[in-house]
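STRUCTURE:
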Protein backbone atom coordinates (compact mmCIF):
# COMPACT_ATOMS: atom_id res chain seq x y z
CA UNK A 1 0.00 0.00 0.00
CA UNK A 2 2.75 2.44 0.99
CA UNK A 3 4.57 1.77 -2.29
CA UNK A 4 1.38 2.62 -4.19
CA UNK A 5 0.96 5.83 -2.20
CA UNK A 6 4.58 6.85 -2.86
CA UNK A 7 3.79 7.04 -6.58
CA UNK A 8 1.29 9.80 -5.81
CA UNK A 9 3.86 12.30 -4.45
CA UNK A 10 3.80 14.41 -7.62
CA UNK A 11 0.27 13.45 -8.70
CA UNK A 12 -2.62 15.95 -8.61
CA UNK A 13 -5.24 15.65 -5.86
CA UNK A 14 -8.18 14.63 -7.99
CA UNK A 15 -11.40 12.64 -7.61
CA UNK A 16 -12.43 9.65 -9.75
CA UNK A 17 -14.58 11.97 -11.89
CA UNK A 18 -11.73 14.42 -12.42
CA UNK A 19 -12.55 17.18 -9.91
CA UNK A 20 -9.43 18.89 -8.61
CA UNK A 21 -8.85 19.55 -4.92
CA UNK A 22 -5.86 20.58 -2.82
CA UNK A 23 -4.34 18.46 -0.07
CA UNK A 24 -2.10 20.54 2.15
CA UNK A 25 -0.02 20.12 5.30
CA UNK A 26 -0.35 21.50 8.82
CA UNK A 27 3.03 22.56 10.18
CA UNK A 28 4.45 24.06 13.37
CA UNK A 29 7.91 25.38 12.42
CA UNK A 30 9.77 26.40 9.22
CA UNK A 31 11.77 23.17 9.55
CA UNK A 32 8.57 21.17 8.87
CA UNK A 33 8.30 22.60 5.35
CA UNK A 34 10.82 20.15 3.86
CA UNK A 35 8.84 17.14 5.08
CA UNK A 36 5.54 18.58 3.86
CA UNK A 37 6.99 19.03 0.37
CA UNK A 38 8.51 15.51 0.51
CA UNK A 39 5.11 14.05 1.44
CA UNK A 40 3.58 15.60 -1.68
CA UNK A 41 1.65 18.49 -0.12
CA UNK A 42 -0.01 20.83 -2.61
CA UNK A 43 0.74 23.60 -0.12
CA UNK A 44 0.72 24.38 3.59
CA UNK A 45 -2.81 25.11 4.77
CA UNK A 46 -1.95 25.89 8.38
CA UNK A 47 1.34 27.16 9.70
CA UNK A 48 0.75 27.54 13.44
CA UNK A 49 2.89 30.61 14.17
CA UNK A 50 2.69 30.09 17.96
CA UNK A 51 6.03 28.24 18.01
CA UNK A 52 7.78 31.56 17.37
CA UNK A 53 6.40 32.83 20.65
CA UNK A 54 6.34 29.63 22.72
CA UNK A 55 9.94 28.63 21.88
CA UNK A 56 11.36 32.06 22.73
CA UNK A 57 12.26 33.73 26.02
CA UNK A 58 11.28 37.15 24.69
CA UNK A 59 8.67 38.62 22.39
CA UNK A 60 10.09 37.79 18.93
CA UNK A 61 11.04 40.94 17.03
CA UNK A 62 9.73 41.81 13.58
CA UNK A 63 13.12 40.88 12.08
CA UNK A 64 13.26 37.50 13.86
CA UNK A 65 9.78 36.70 12.59
CA UNK A 66 10.61 37.87 9.08
CA UNK A 67 13.51 35.39 8.92
CA UNK A 68 11.27 32.50 10.00
CA UNK A 69 8.51 33.27 7.47
CA UNK A 70 11.04 33.87 4.71
CA UNK A 71 12.70 30.50 5.44
CA UNK A 72 9.31 28.77 5.25
CA UNK A 73 8.34 30.46 1.97
CA UNK A 74 11.69 29.76 0.31
CA UNK A 75 11.39 26.09 1.36
CA UNK A 76 7.95 25.87 -0.25
CA UNK A 77 9.53 26.34 -3.70
CA UNK A 78 6.56 28.22 -5.12
CA UNK A 79 3.77 26.27 -3.42
CA UNK A 80 1.29 28.33 -1.37
CA UNK A 81 1.74 28.86 2.38
CA UNK A 82 -1.00 29.88 4.81
CA UNK A 83 0.28 31.42 8.04
CA UNK A 84 -2.13 31.72 10.94
CA UNK A 85 -1.43 34.74 13.10
CA UNK A 86 -0.61 34.06 16.74
CA UNK A 87 -3.07 31.93 18.65
CA UNK A 88 -1.63 32.50 22.13
CA UNK A 89 -3.03 33.55 25.49
CA UNK A 90 -5.61 31.60 27.45
CA UNK A 91 -4.33 28.03 27.70
CA UNK A 92 -1.10 28.90 25.81
CA UNK A 93 0.61 31.40 28.17
CA UNK A 94 3.96 33.10 27.60
CA UNK A 95 6.44 33.71 30.46
CA UNK A 96 7.34 37.14 29.14
CA UNK A 97 3.76 38.29 28.61
CA UNK A 98 2.03 38.53 31.98
CA UNK A 99 -1.73 38.05 31.62
CA UNK A 100 -4.34 37.75 34.34
CA UNK A 101 -5.37 34.20 35.37
CA UNK A 102 -8.68 33.23 33.84
CA UNK A 103 -11.52 30.94 34.94
CA UNK A 104 -12.23 29.85 31.35
CA UNK A 105 -9.11 30.23 29.23
CA UNK A 106 -10.74 28.74 26.12
CA UNK A 107 -13.38 31.45 26.35
CA UNK A 108 -10.97 34.15 27.37
CA UNK A 109 -8.39 36.64 26.26
CA UNK A 110 -6.55 34.83 23.47
CA UNK A 111 -5.61 34.81 19.81
CA UNK A 112 -7.20 37.60 17.76
CA UNK A 113 -8.81 39.06 20.89
CA UNK A 114 -5.38 39.72 22.40
CA UNK A 115 -3.96 40.86 19.04
CA UNK A 116 -6.69 43.45 18.49
CA UNK A 117 -6.33 44.82 22.01
CA UNK A 118 -2.51 44.91 21.88
CA UNK A 119 -1.58 46.04 18.37
CA UNK A 120 1.99 46.68 19.56
CA UNK A 121 2.27 42.86 19.68
CA UNK A 122 0.25 42.17 16.52
CA UNK A 123 1.71 44.74 14.13
CA UNK A 124 5.29 43.38 14.15
CA UNK A 125 3.90 39.97 13.15
CA UNK A 126 1.85 41.46 10.32
CA UNK A 127 4.78 43.55 9.09
CA UNK A 128 7.13 40.55 9.19
CA UNK A 129 4.60 38.60 7.11
CA UNK A 130 4.10 41.39 4.58
CA UNK A 131 7.87 41.71 4.14
CA UNK A 132 8.28 37.94 3.74
CA UNK A 133 5.56 37.80 1.06
CA UNK A 134 8.18 38.73 -1.53
CA UNK A 135 9.57 35.20 -1.26
CA UNK A 136 6.52 33.16 -2.33
CA UNK A 137 2.73 32.95 -2.48
CA UNK A 138 1.54 33.86 1.02
CA UNK A 139 -1.87 33.81 2.66
CA UNK A 140 -2.57 35.10 6.16
CA UNK A 141 -5.47 33.94 8.30
CA UNK A 142 -6.85 35.17 11.59
CA UNK A 143 -7.80 32.69 14.36
CA UNK A 144 -10.84 32.82 16.66
CA UNK A 145 -12.77 35.47 14.75
CA UNK A 146 -16.35 35.56 16.04
CA UNK A 147 -17.83 38.78 14.74
CA UNK A 148 -17.66 40.87 11.59
CA UNK A 149 -16.31 43.76 13.67
CA UNK A 150 -13.33 41.63 14.76
CA UNK A 151 -12.66 40.61 11.17
CA UNK A 152 -12.79 44.22 10.01
CA UNK A 153 -10.53 45.38 12.83
CA UNK A 154 -7.94 42.69 11.97
CA UNK A 155 -8.06 43.64 8.29
CA UNK A 156 -7.71 47.33 9.17
CA UNK A 157 -4.53 46.62 11.14
CA UNK A 158 -3.19 44.57 8.23
CA UNK A 159 -3.91 47.44 5.82
CA UNK A 160 -2.32 49.93 8.21
CA UNK A 161 0.88 47.84 8.33
CA UNK A 162 0.89 47.48 4.57
CA UNK A 163 0.46 51.23 4.04
CA UNK A 164 3.32 51.95 6.43
CA UNK A 165 5.63 49.55 4.56
CA UNK A 166 4.49 50.71 1.14
CA UNK A 167 5.81 54.23 1.84
CA UNK A 168 9.23 52.74 1.12
CA UNK A 169 8.26 49.66 -0.91
CA UNK A 170 5.34 50.38 -3.24
CA UNK A 171 3.15 47.36 -3.94
CA UNK A 172 4.66 45.24 -1.16
CA UNK A 173 2.14 42.69 0.12
CA UNK A 174 -0.52 43.46 -2.49
CA UNK A 175 -0.64 39.78 -3.53
CA UNK A 176 -1.29 38.44 -0.03
CA UNK A 177 -4.61 36.62 0.34
CA UNK A 178 -6.51 37.19 3.57
CA UNK A 179 -8.63 34.58 5.29
CA UNK A 180 -10.17 33.68 8.60
CA UNK A 181 -10.56 30.51 10.57
CA UNK A 182 -14.10 29.32 11.14
CA UNK A 183 -13.88 27.98 14.69
CA UNK A 184 -16.28 30.16 16.67
CA UNK A 185 -19.93 29.04 16.22
CA UNK A 186 -21.21 32.55 15.49
CA UNK A 187 -18.76 32.93 12.61
CA UNK A 188 -20.02 29.65 11.14
CA UNK A 189 -23.65 30.76 11.45
CA UNK A 190 -22.77 34.14 9.95
CA UNK A 191 -20.64 32.64 7.19
CA UNK A 192 -22.46 34.48 4.39
CA UNK A 193 -21.52 37.89 5.73
CA UNK A 194 -18.01 36.78 6.63
CA UNK A 195 -17.40 35.29 3.17
CA UNK A 196 -17.98 38.63 1.48
CA UNK A 197 -14.94 40.07 3.24
CA UNK A 198 -12.24 37.38 2.91
CA UNK A 199 -10.48 35.44 0.16
CA UNK A 200 -10.81 32.14 2.00
CA UNK A 201 -12.17 30.32 5.04
CA UNK A 202 -10.31 27.62 6.90
CA UNK A 203 -12.59 25.56 9.12
CA UNK A 204 -10.86 24.77 12.41
CA UNK A 205 -12.89 21.76 13.44
CA UNK A 206 -10.94 21.12 16.64
CA UNK A 207 -12.27 24.31 18.15
CA UNK A 208 -15.49 24.48 16.15
CA UNK A 209 -16.48 21.10 17.64
CA UNK A 210 -15.27 22.08 21.13
CA UNK A 211 -17.41 25.22 21.10
CA UNK A 212 -20.48 23.72 19.42
CA UNK A 213 -20.64 20.73 21.73
CA UNK A 214 -19.48 22.79 24.74
CA UNK A 215 -16.88 20.11 25.44
CA UNK A 216 -13.25 20.83 26.39
CA UNK A 217 -11.12 19.33 23.58
CA UNK A 218 -8.46 18.16 26.06
CA UNK A 219 -10.73 16.51 28.64
CA UNK A 220 -11.00 12.69 28.30
CA UNK A 221 -14.18 12.59 30.38
CA UNK A 222 -16.06 14.47 27.64
CA UNK A 223 -14.18 13.15 24.60
CA UNK A 224 -17.30 11.22 23.56
CA UNK A 225 -18.60 14.62 22.48
CA UNK A 226 -15.90 14.96 19.84
CA UNK A 227 -18.24 14.09 16.96
CA UNK A 228 -17.11 15.38 13.57
CA UNK A 229 -19.65 13.06 11.91
CA UNK A 230 -22.64 14.23 13.94
CA UNK A 231 -25.34 15.03 11.34
CA UNK A 232 -26.14 18.42 12.90
CA UNK A 233 -22.48 19.32 12.87
CA UNK A 234 -22.17 18.16 9.24
CA UNK A 235 -24.99 20.46 8.24
CA UNK A 236 -23.17 23.37 9.89
CA UNK A 237 -20.00 22.53 7.96
CA UNK A 238 -22.04 22.31 4.75
CA UNK A 239 -23.60 25.70 5.49
CA UNK A 240 -20.10 27.23 5.84
CA UNK A 241 -18.86 25.70 2.56
CA UNK A 242 -22.03 26.69 0.66
CA UNK A 243 -21.81 30.24 2.03
CA UNK A 244 -18.17 30.51 0.94
CA UNK A 245 -19.02 29.39 -2.57
CA UNK A 246 -22.02 31.72 -2.87
CA UNK A 247 -19.53 34.58 -2.60
CA UNK A 248 -16.63 33.16 -4.63
CA UNK A 249 -14.64 32.46 -1.47
CA UNK A 250 -12.41 29.41 -1.16
CA UNK A 251 -13.35 26.86 1.50
CA UNK A 252 -10.52 25.05 3.29
CA UNK A 253 -10.38 22.95 6.45
CA UNK A 254 -7.38 22.60 8.75
CA UNK A 255 -8.80 20.84 11.83
CA UNK A 256 -8.30 17.10 12.42
CA UNK A 257 -11.51 16.35 10.54
CA UNK A 258 -9.77 17.26 7.24
CA UNK A 259 -7.63 14.12 7.54
CA UNK A 260 -10.40 11.81 8.82
CA UNK A 261 -11.01 8.99 6.37
CA UNK A 262 -14.75 8.79 7.14
CA UNK A 263 -15.17 12.53 6.74
CA UNK A 264 -13.38 12.65 3.37
CA UNK A 265 -16.24 11.48 1.11
CA UNK A 266 -18.64 13.79 2.93
CA UNK A 267 -16.36 16.81 2.59
CA UNK A 268 -15.77 16.04 -1.08
CA UNK A 269 -19.54 15.80 -1.52
CA UNK A 270 -19.89 19.26 0.03
CA UNK A 271 -17.26 20.60 -2.37
CA UNK A 272 -14.61 21.52 0.20
CA UNK A 273 -11.71 22.91 -1.84
CA UNK A 274 -8.68 22.31 0.39
CA UNK A 275 -7.87 19.63 3.01
CA UNK A 276 -5.03 20.53 5.35
CA UNK A 277 -3.71 17.75 7.59
CA UNK A 278 -0.62 16.24 9.15
CA UNK A 279 1.91 15.56 6.39
CA UNK A 280 1.88 11.81 7.06
CA UNK A 281 -1.81 11.57 6.04
CA UNK A 282 -1.47 13.30 2.65
CA UNK A 283 -0.68 10.37 0.37
CA UNK A 284 -3.27 8.08 1.97
CA UNK A 285 -5.89 10.79 1.45
CA UNK A 286 -4.86 11.43 -2.17
CA UNK A 287 -5.11 7.71 -2.83
CA UNK A 288 -8.65 7.44 -1.36
CA UNK A 289 -9.75 10.62 -3.16
CA UNK A 290 -8.82 9.08 -6.52
CA UNK A 291 -11.44 6.36 -5.97
CA UNK A 292 -14.33 8.62 -4.96
CA UNK A 293 -16.92 10.10 -7.31
CA UNK A 294 -18.11 13.57 -6.24
CA UNK A 295 -21.69 13.07 -7.47
CA UNK A 296 -22.00 9.95 -5.33
CA UNK A 297 -20.35 11.80 -2.46
CA UNK A 298 -22.94 14.58 -2.72
CA UNK A 299 -25.74 11.97 -2.43
CA UNK A 300 -23.99 10.55 0.61
CA UNK A 301 -24.06 14.00 2.23
CA UNK A 302 -27.82 14.32 1.65
CA UNK A 303 -28.36 10.88 3.15
CA UNK A 304 -26.14 11.59 6.16
CA UNK A 305 -27.79 14.90 6.96
CA UNK A 306 -31.40 13.91 6.20
CA UNK A 307 -31.58 10.25 7.20
CA UNK A 308 -29.07 9.74 9.99
CA UNK A 309 -29.75 10.58 13.61
CA UNK A 310 -26.30 10.04 15.12
CA UNK A 311 -22.60 10.16 14.25
CA UNK A 312 -22.47 6.36 14.56
CA UNK A 313 -25.14 6.02 11.87
CA UNK A 314 -23.17 8.37 9.62
CA UNK A 315 -19.98 6.37 10.16
CA UNK A 316 -21.77 3.13 9.23
CA UNK A 317 -23.25 4.78 6.14
CA UNK A 318 -19.84 6.03 4.97
CA UNK A 319 -18.13 2.74 5.80
CA UNK A 320 -20.59 0.88 3.59
CA UNK A 321 -19.70 3.13 0.66
CA UNK A 322 -15.92 3.12 1.11
C1 LIG B 1 -8.64 24.04 15.02
O1 LIG B 1 -9.11 24.65 15.99
O2 LIG B 1 -9.27 23.16 14.41
C2 LIG B 1 -7.28 24.34 14.53
C3 LIG B 1 -6.85 23.85 13.39
O3 LIG B 1 -6.48 25.11 15.31
P1 LIG B 1 -5.79 24.60 16.64
O4 LIG B 1 -5.91 23.09 16.67
O5 LIG B 1 -4.36 25.06 16.56
O6 LIG B 1 -6.57 25.28 17.70
MG1 LIG C 1 -8.19 26.42 16.86
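SEQUENCE:
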Amino acid sequence: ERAEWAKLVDAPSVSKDGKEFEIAANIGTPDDVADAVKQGADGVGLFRSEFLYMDSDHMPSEDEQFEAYKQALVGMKGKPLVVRTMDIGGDKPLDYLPLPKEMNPFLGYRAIRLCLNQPEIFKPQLKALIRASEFGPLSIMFPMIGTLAELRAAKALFNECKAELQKDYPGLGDDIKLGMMIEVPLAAINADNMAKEVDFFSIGTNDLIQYNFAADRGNDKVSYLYQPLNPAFLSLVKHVIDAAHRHGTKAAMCGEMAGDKYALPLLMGMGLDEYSMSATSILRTRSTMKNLDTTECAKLVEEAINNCATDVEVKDLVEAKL
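REMARK: Strands lie at 13-14, 20-27, 44-48, 81-84, 138-142, 177-182, 200-203, 250-253, 274-277.
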